[in-house]
């Protein structure tokens, strides 16, 4: 009968795809919550945005702002007299304020000191009477012209026309002490309680007035205005003025401002034909336009005449929009929150990959024929699909909810950026999964990476972009880490959205934009990381693609050295007739490729290279074995004997160091994919998906064996019935609910699905109760009739019940081979006599045994119970019975028995002898 065709690439991919779809149906709630996570974040951002808008659209008392104007042109809140709303509400029509000269604090007005030894300065006694004058300094290249100019500064007496208050204030020079306020929408003289002064050459008695001022419907009643004298002093040069200003502002006293000058003017080369001036004025947030008007008006009057006026009517702020339109939560918090949202997929993907590795499900699929290619295509495609849906929900819902972060940036740019990054993220997850063997460790590590990246990335990205001192190569090095590259891209999106234009294809070439750089770095990393991860996943070096010829050259040398190292093992085998006979049989079968033997092993060897200074480990030493169709071969041996290494070579998990084996005439070295179609494996531990049912397991593995349509359905139903998993709806229950016996039967059913011609069973009945074990044995007995089975076990009872031939494997080599009866006859050769008497009669028992078996050997003795090993060649069973009956007349015999040699005795004897031989060598 011809071997069935191996499952093609797309057949394997279809099997894995169907299994994944079924598996995800069991976890639909988890998947929905995962995909909805970015949606919930967008909703949260919108709620925060609306809450912020509501807060910002109210005044300090929690009242809503009114966006209307009254008939006078002022904002509506002016008509109510509530000026507290100015900092938080819109000002579409700012009011007109009279111009004020910004004055220093009058208690610090300059006077004559040791540091300022100018004789024209006032004496310090003026501070005691609170009558200090303001000090203004002048200089120019033309003294007489400058004198005429500043002589015209305060020529008009203070006068207020009640019918035109604003006009009256324009003709007078008013001033207030400089006060820093939190907003610039109110004149400090009216916003806070500060004095108002009018500047004169000399103040008269009773020079204090009260004025009433109305603007925008708001009336300021009886504002007191006091006169203050202004002294205009000449200095020889601009440098003298600088020195006096500096010394007066700070003279070493820690109290700071003590001798301040109100203003200073340098008329330079000004004359009747030109006006050129430098002005020093008090530092303030509000530019002192009044000082410019003051000197300009004085110059105009000195040149044209006293009738000339350059009036400064009022100052007016720029209109102010609503503050709520200026703050976008999505752009403000995006660089941090969006990093966490997008990288949230990394722990999910990594945990899924490590879960299959930890539970050895990937290994199980590989043993049943799933190649690396289909696994990568389906797994990668599944993670990519989940990631694309995740990001689409993120962008679509963020746009629908009105977040400018998504709406302003070009959607095609966003798609390219997110698509490249999620592919890079999946590739990194595949690469990193090779470093972990536990899901918990991988998940915790991944979340630490996600949160630390979010906290560091925003700071590092913004600092690298905004700091011109950092070289370009440093930014590139940082972006080689995928998390920082993601952060830089999101920073570009957020920064452009906050500016109101967004990232577009046409502005990505700007020198200030790093989007092109990020896309290039992530694209190259995606390809490199994917390539490295794929080769590491196969247990190969990523450089093996470039070193194939060199590797082939070195392999022949390695085989030669291994053969020299193991040469002594052939001499050992030649001394054992059964092993020698098996080798001769293998050599004969190799000359007859048309034989019906299912397995032929030819000098199969496996050596693991030494690491960290340790010598190399020889696991399998030149194994030769021939297994015909319809035979169950049992491999017995202590732990570490090499049984698992042998099976791993036979199922393609590891490559043989030397020699080879043929399964159904196919070489395990280069035809392993074809061998998988005829092979079934039952591992020592149940490797099952707890979310899948028994039927779904069999459907998946049946498809891997290239079963389709009705043939697949029929094979699954027969397997369920034969293994007693069909009745009571057990087949459609999740494997996680199965008992230990049911899981074991399902594992055996999986190994037999698809009618494999060769089956490997690693301790199939371990941990089963007697009833389940007997049921499982019956299935194996029926199954071995038309297939070859290699079974490993530590149960001698199981070996005798199931196996046609047995081989005892010690230290990597077969020590004996044959059916159970032959082995017991060959290595037993004795009976075991057990008798229990009183302690006083133990000596009598020994004398009795030596009478019918002079060479008997005591092998056990405790509390009156003794065991003796009797050579079969010198004792007859009838003599033993006769001796015991005779002994009962002289002393009490509580119990006795005579047993033939068991397989357990044979196993212990062979294993002990082999170990002693190794120790002697």
UniProtKB/TrEMBL annotation:
Pfam family membership, one: ABC2_membrane_3
GO cellular component, one term: membrane
Membrane disposition: Multi-pass membrane protein
GO MF entries: ABC-type transporter activity; ATP binding; ATP hydrolysis activity; lipid transporter activity
Keywords per UniProt: ATP-binding, Membrane, Nucleotide-binding, Transmembrane, Transmembrane helix
Locations listed in the record: Membrane
Keyword Membrane: yes
Transmembrane regions: 32-48, 336-355, 375-403, 415-436, 442-461, 473-494, 514-536
Domain ABC transporter: 599-836
CDD domains tied to this protein: ABC_subfamily_A
InterPro entries attached to this UniProt entry: AAA+_ATPase (IPR003593), ABC2_TM (IPR013525), ABC_transporter-like_ATP-bd (IPR003439), ABC_transporter-like_CS (IPR017871), ABCA (IPR026082), P-loop_NTPase (IPR027417)
Main location: membrane
Gene3D superfamilies: P-loop containing nucleotide triphosphate hydrolases
Family membership noted in the UniProt record: Belongs to the ABC transporter superfamily. ABCA family. CPR flippase (TC 3.A.1.211) subfamily.
Protein name from the UniProt record: ABC transporter domain-containing protein
Biological source species: Lupinus angustifolius
Lineage: Eukaryota, Viridiplantae, Streptophyta, Embryophyta, Tracheophyta
